[in-house]
Amino acid sequence: MGPPIRHHSGSHPDHLSEEVRQISDPVLKMLHIIHKIIFISQLPPTLTPNPRRKVIERFKRALFSPQSTIVNLKSELKKVVAGSKELIDINLGVGEACYLLRQASREETALQTTGEKPANTGFDPNDTDIGITYEQMQNFIESVLVESGYYDMSPNARHKTIPLGPIPNSPQRTGGRRMLSYEA
Q1: Spatial separation of the C-alpha atoms in residues 139 and 109, rounded to whole Å
Q2: CB within 8 A of 119, min separation 6: which ones?
Q3: Mean pLDDT across the chain, nearest whole number?
Q4: Is the dihedral of CA 67, 103, 150, 80 positive or negative?
Q5: What integer is the mean pLDDT of 40-68?
Q6: In whole angstroms, how far apart are CA 170 and each of 16, 52, 76, 181?
Q7: Is the pLDDT of residue 135 over 80?
Q8: Is residue 52 within 8 Å of residue 108, measured between CB atoms?
């Protein structure tokens, strides 16, 4: 490769083109995780129970609970983005919540190894290995997004909104009232 190319533009200092690199914005990564979590929470219900979605929904509720602060939200999202191996504290007690975590973990493991969901094994009250890491939450989020077709949509289709109705192009007379025209 030849010598680095120097760029000079008027009053701006010289810089080497090899020194310019892509900047990774951590805030953008956290916003992307929030977007994914909210997308999942707005999906229509499935015909069969989906414990991964329920765990993600509980995580979302914990993130945005009245007791949560902005600092806490940032800290939790940073851990999800980094795939931390720490356990998430989403105030889960015994019973259904523990069962959901176990089922979601089993389902995720089965999906990664066999590509199929496991049969529902039921709740085992003696199962003490309960907890979910930020890394597992990240995997749950991604697997639900793949299942829902999130990555099959084009970026442009994901950001379009459906119009509320036809917008008339010219003023019309209707029953003595004049309708306004709005340009699209």
Answers
A1: 10
A2: none
A3: 73
A4: positive
A5: 91
A6: 57, 50, 52, 5
A7: yes
A8: yes
